[in-house]
Amino acid sequence: MRPLVFITGASSGIGQALALRYHQAGWRLALVARRVADMQAWLNDQGISAEEARCYGADVSDANSIIDAAKACLAAQGVPTVVIANAGISIGMDTQVREDLEVMQKVMQTNVMGMAATFHPFLEAMKAQAANPTSPQKAGTLVGIASVAGIRGMPGHAAYCASKAAAISYCESLRGELKSQGLRVVTLAPGYIQTPLTQKNKFPMPFLMTADDFASEAFKAIEKGVSFKVIPAPMAWVARILRILPDVFFDRLFKNQPRKHRANH
Length: 265
What we know:
Layout: E1 4-8, H1 13-24, E2 28-33, H2 36-46, E3 53-57, H3 63-77, E4 82-85, H4 100-119, H5 123-131, E5 141-145, H6 158-178, E6 184-190, E7 193-194, E8 209-210, H7 211-224, E9 228-231, H8 233-244, H9 247-254
Parallel strand pairs: 1-2, 1-4, 2-3, 4-5, 5-6, 6-9, 7-8
Helix pairs in contact: 1-7, 3-4, 4-6
């Protein structure tokens, strides 16, 4: 049987591009998002049949919702070889504004807790599959879509940067926990990708990349089982510099960075 990939946030952007790339490689698809009708319409447009792909409605910020979707996938399609926690949101916040504390909570709930809730229901089945010497499937892989924004905290992007930094650390911890049990954890940190998430950005986006190009690079990284990768390559060099840049220079460089749009803007 062809391998199965489970992708959250698959109704648009990176998630949809990843779904297409995996389909082109001959994989079966389990696609998850809140907008089920949009996913199904896209599958129809691509000529992808019900035998090749199934859609599941879920909100990753609600643990029970995504866990139910995962259980439905296990029952209907079997154990995924790759699980990609891609769903996420990006909203600006201002700590001095009371209602923005709820914004930060929402971002963390979706981008961090949603990732953990996506992985959780598959671990037992994926471990059992990895321990089975007769299983035709290769080692199971959990993929966390983080962001280069998780490398350093950008002014005006507190909630998003904090959530992606947490996602990077979470995946790093999980990688150490699961390696001895036959599972791989891959962390991907996109730079600026042309998606609905970045359309509202009012600041320069260097090395802007199409979602399809990102998906192609991501597919290769996941197949290789890399532990961490920034995509595209030029942004990886920027990330390396940002990691080691002294605070005094970092603060000076980004002091006039435009604030990310807030929820009510």
